[in-house]
Give the backbone structure.
Amino acid sequence: MTPGIDTKRIVIKIGSSSLTSMNGEVSRRKLEKLVEEVVRLKDDGHEVLLVSSGAVAAGYRKLGCLTRPDSLSERQAAASIGQGVLIETYSDLFISHGYVASQILITRSDFSDENRYNNARNTINVLLERGIVPIVNENDTITMDFLKFGDNDTLSAKVAGLVDADQLIILSDIDGLYDSDPRKNEDAKLLTKVNEITPEIEAAAGEPGSSVGTGGMKSKIEAVKIAMASGIPSFLGKSSTNSIVYDAVDNNAVGTYFEPQEDMEELNQKKQWIAFNSGPEGEVTIKPSAKEAILENHTSLEPSAVYSVNGRFKKGAVVKIFDPTGEEIGLGVVNYSSKALDQLINKIDVDLEKYEKAAIESEQLVCHLDTSVLTTV
Ligand SMILES: Nc1ncnc2c1ncn2[C@@H]1O[C@H](COP(=O)(O)OP(=O)(O)O)[C@@H](O)[C@H]1O
Ligand SMILES: N[C@@H](CCC(=O)OP(=O)(O)O)C(=O)O
């Protein structure tokens, strides 16, 4: 390990356009460049996890399609071919440098179940601690469209939160975030440092630039918001730039650095799971006085603060919390089932012992988050 370098845990996301050639084949040369950069970081003692797209892009030609297919089943079939080709190439390249790669395919339902989520963390921790390079992709072949993460940008931010990464590096075909879509405005300027995702930035972030990219700048900004809320700094840069990954870790690369604000409340692992992965099962509406208490003082929510309950959920479920005007305040984990909570607020067969517990404890409340981040759950 190079003297003076602290070991960092780094998650690198690379997009389809950065891994495949124009004719829909895995580009060994592009993968080689990435692997060589990861190897430099590994030689310095860092832990590196890759979130790699490219399964569909690397497989559709071999499936017999001339362009990226429109139908879901053809894309899933293409991913089934391309994922194998990708991992074989990565694995070969890492072995030639003395490192071992592993494959992890994730579906959104793996993350919405807290036990499976924690299990994924334990497995990845073992791999990282033993020097392996885990390579993560969405399990495209078996995931239904409406159950997908949808894009690997948000997946990479969620994975970075899962493993408590020190930095998220997103590599694309563009050298950072511009103040407007550079394809539409030739005067667009590169933003080198961003501390807050403002509505202007969201408006500037447009659609994909290539026929194989899926998320475009929009999903990269969503990803960065999740990383920021989890206290993880991110970098966005161009995959083909020389030494981009190494320089990004060194804070010395051309691109956009996203730094979480110092006074921002950083979500702990439990709250990250609630906010970004859980998938709410019901709704509670609370009284106006309780809204102030949870937003200003972060206090627990007593059953007496609950105005009404919507949906059927079990004790321990994640629910959305609304104020009486219908504005969404945040998310929380309930200590009562919907039936018990309904009985408590209507004082039917009230079990006083149970009543002493808060309906939602403050450490299981996620408030203050921008609704557009919350809606990504
Ligand atoms: N404000 C913006 N700044 C930079 N790029 C933008 C912006 N708005 C839209 N884009 C487009 O987003 C593209 C990158 O997203 P995408 O095509 O999904 O790449 P990847 O396959 O790497 O995920 C860029 O090539 C660019 O054309
Ligand atoms: N999971 C898909 C990629 C999804 C995705 O986000 O693609 P991209 O916008 O190229 O990062 C695949 O491997 O083809």
Observations:
- The chain has two domains: 9-265, 278-374.
- The chain has 14 helices and 13 strands.
